Amino acid sequence: MSNAPIEPAQERGLDPKARGAARLAAVQALYQMDVAATPLDDVIEEFIEHRLGQDIEGNDIVEADAAHFEDIVRGVVREQRELDRQVNGALASGWSLTRIDSTLRAILRCGTYELRRCKDIPVKVVINEYVDVAHAFFEGDEPGVVNAVLDRLGREVRKGAGDDAAGRS
Length: 169
What we know:
Strand content: under 5%
Number of strands: 0
Mean pLDDT: 84
Oligomer: single chain
Low-confidence stretches: 1-14, 163-169
């Protein structure tokens, strides 16, 4: 894998949905790391080289923003203790990250990371994007859990940031 920096999607003229595809891939990569114990650098290389934007069973997949994907995955791994503390504090009473599905755990960690570190993306966009990711994996109450937890954390993390302005996705 090349060590050259990857330009963000908006600077390469990618489809506006490139960050959404990066979010979905980041959740999948973190899930793979969790269940298969795939090392960080290996999972990032595998996704960037072989999975992002690939044609799957004749269906073109939106090209993902590789830089955003890598930032989320590395950031979640780097800040996992603090992210878990924040998510645990925002879950309903009696619930903890250890009690929830590993895919849902990955979604909440990714969303919380973006709320903390990607200040150029409005809270509403982060929440809506990860609720959409949750719908890709779950048909039950999980998308509602993602909405509630990230909404709670968004208000906490971005207090007074004037975040309602339009922004990039």
